[in-house]
Design brief:
- The complex is a heterodimer of chains A (251) and B (317).
- By secondary structure, chain A is α/β, with parallel strands linked by helices.
- Chain A folds into two domains: 161 residues, Rossmann fold (3-Layer(aba) Sandwich); 81 residues, no CATH class.
- Helix content of chain A is 39%, strand content 24%.
- Chain A contains ten helices and ten strands.
- In chain A, strands 6-7-8-3-9-10 form a six-stranded mixed sheet, sandwiched between helices. Chain A has a four-stranded antiparallel sheet with strand order 2-1-4-5, covered by helices on one side.
- The termini of chain A are far apart.
- Chain B is mainly α and 317 residues long.
- Chain B has one domain.
- Chain B has 14 helices and four strands.
- The two termini of chain B are 30 Å apart.
- The chains are: A alpha/beta (251), B mainly alpha (317).
- Chains A and B meet through helix 2, helix 3, helix 4 and helix 5 of A and helix 7, helix 8, helix 9 and helix 10 of B.
């Protein structure tokens, strides 16, 4: 699905990432973990085209998309959520999800202004579709609420609904459990499994180790911008290098 | 969406009925300019209030529309309606072309660049004397006409201008509540998230910039045919600022807010005539207090104020 080969990223003199190569296998949930400052979010930004890599390539289904802007990647079914929740705060919850259906609709400026008949039916279609995704994440009753007024947990669910509306092949989630309480995190784990069951491949940056060990099929460990290890959750737990990176050297 | 349609119908009825209830002459004349300013404010509001992109050069598009129609009408033989359409398309194409480099900028830099566009246009109107008549203006522009029906009185021009304004308002309302409008508002709230959702932010910003130029150019053409005389001062930098004030005072991101802002800022200077030389001070104080106490603009502030003064009955039940 997503293949990264030799990814490096420098910001001025600072090397944020170096020599990152791994593949997210179709149908899997792949966790990307590592201590703070390991470069996880930078890696996501490169994968989704927020900025290009300094070196290496990003391949989606074998296609080199290293220098594609995010809006073009969205049409290939690559979408993400954000660590700090990036909702469209002044729009309603339903409208947020409808933006997620942007790639599956095509009315332009003229069709919209003139209310062409086919534009109206497209509008109805995406409204119904958007409602379906609000049901999926369990917040259908909030459709007319302004997104900016949502609680953190509900906002996160909305962000997932919006991303799912895009019918992604690959969904990258940046710390979805951050700021959630334990019952919300349990619901999230269940939701991510349901997303995988819809044959959506999931990439997950996460600090919550219980969540990661519970749902991930494979893990990639980053430390200080380099790859430390890859493997199944069990292998990673037993890897001495990983333990050292997280807990420090035994004296 | 249904309530939007109702609101529009109600508004259209009020607009069409007003001339029946007011004395002919001065006030009708002022309301013609409210119509023109509504279109200009609406154009800017689509750009600033919805897409979140500032322009301090709107007067340039207004002026290009006015001079385009004015020059074609006085120096060439061409149907003025056709001229209006050609000029509007031309101005929109111009905005589309400059939009790509200009709208790459953000915030203060975008403000500066659009200000530059406005200043250049203003200087051009002054300096191309052979074409525009320069600082002394361009006169002898004909009124618009349909067959033998000439729009030569205030009341006729009122209906002319407001027909265009109403159509603009209706199309704008359609647009903001649709895929394109949602894209614009998404760009405003979080450009990065909008792009991740597949919204081509760069193209859409340029498109709405061209649309706002289009509406402004139509307003300019109407203005020149209503006035029959134009001069560069009507398209100078203070005009762009006044439009910005209308949008902010009326309500950013509200179609009717644009109209409300245009109404207030067109009527206010007329009403403040009583203060004579002090009018500019009163004007300034009003604007300052409105931005402090009604930060969402009149369109949101008035209902809020109303609720505060008259608490809804049954709300304590």
């Amino acid at each position: 699905m997503l293949k990264l080969t030799g990814i490096g990223k420098r910001f001025g003199g600072l090397t944020a990432l170096q020599g990152i190569s791994f593949e997210i296998v179709p149908g899997s949930i792949t966790g990307i973990i590592g201590p703070n400052g390991a470069g996880k979010t930078t890696l996501f930004n490169i994968a989704t085209g927020i900025y290009p890599p300094s070196e290496g390539a990003v391949l989606l289904d074998g296609k080199d998309i290293s220098n594609w802007p995010p809006e073009k990647r969205a049409y290939l079914g690559l979408v993400r959520t954000f660590q700090n929740i990036e909702l469209f705060g002044k729009m309603t919850v339903l409208e947020n999800v409808m933006v997620g259906l942007h790639t599956q609709s095509k009315s332009g400026i003229f069709a919209c202004a003139l209310r062409m008949p086919w534009q109206m039916s497209e509008e109805r279609r995406i409204r119904e579709e958007a409602r379906k995704w609000l049901e999926f994440v369990g917040i259908p009753e909030l459709e007319n609420v302004e997104a900016g007024t949502l609680s953190f947990g509900k906002g996160r669910l909305l962000e997932i609904a919006r991303a799912m509306a895009l019918k992604p092949k690959l969904l990258l989630m940046d710390e979805p459990a951050a700021g959630l309480n334990s019952s919300e995190t349990a619901d999230l784990a269940d939701l991510i499994k349901r997303i995988r069951d819809l044959r959506v491949t999931v990439g997950l940056v996460e600090h919550d180790m219980d969540l990661v060990m519970d749902i991930c099929d494979s893990l990639v460990v980053l430390n200080l911008g380099t790859m430390l290890a890859t493997g199944t959750p069990r292998e990673i737990q037993d890897n001495p290098a990983v333990v050292t990176a997280y807990l420090g050297e035994a004296e | 969406m249904k309530s939007d349609k109702l609101k529009f119908l109600l508004f259209a009825v009020v607009v069409l009925a007003i001339p029946l209830f007011i004395p002919k002459g001065y006030l009708t004349n002022v309301l013609i300019f409210v119509g023109i300013n509504s279109m200009l404010a609406l154009g800017l509001n689509l750009l600033l209030g919805y897409a979140g992109q500032i322009s301090l050069g709107q007067a340039a598009f207004f002026g290009l529309g006015a001079y385009g129609s004015g020059v074609l009408n006085t120096q060439y033989v061409i149907n003025p309606w056709l001229a209006m359409a050609l000029v509007a398309v031309g101005v929109a194409a111009f905005a589309f072309a400059i939009g790509f480099p200009v709208l790459r900028l953000k915030g203060h830099y975008l403000a500066m660049a659009t200000l530059g566009v406005g200043v250049i246009a203003y200087i051009s109107f002054n300096e191309t004397v052979d074409l525009t008549g320069g600082p002394s203006g361009l006169s002898g522009i004909e009124n618009l006409s349909i067959g033998s029906f000439v729009f030569d009185s205030d009341i006729k021009n009122y209906y002319l201008v407001w027909s265009f304004a109403l159509v603009s308002i209706l199309l704008a309302m359609n647009m903001v509540n649709s895929r394109f409008g949602r894209g614009l508002r998404a760009i405003h709230d979080s450009e990065v998230a909008a792009r991740v959702m597949g919204v081509n932010a760069r193209l859409m910003k340029v498109q709405v910039f061209a649309l706002s130029a289009f509406i402004s150019a139509i307003a300019g053409s109407l203005y020149c045919h209503v006035m029959t005389f134009i001069s560069p001062t009507s398209f100078s930098f203070p005009v762009s600022i006044e439009l910005l004030t209308m949008v902010v005072i009326g309500g950013l991101g509200s179609v009717f807010g644009s109209v409300l802002g245009a109404l207030l800022l067109t009527l206010l200077p007329e009403m403040l005539r009583a203060f004579q030389d002090m009018d500019i001070i009163v004007y300034g104080l009003l604007l300052i207090s409105m931005t402090i106490y009604l930060p969402g603009g009149l369109v949101r502030g008035i209902p809020a104020l109303f609720r505060k003064i008259v608490p809804a009955r049954g709300s304590h039940a």
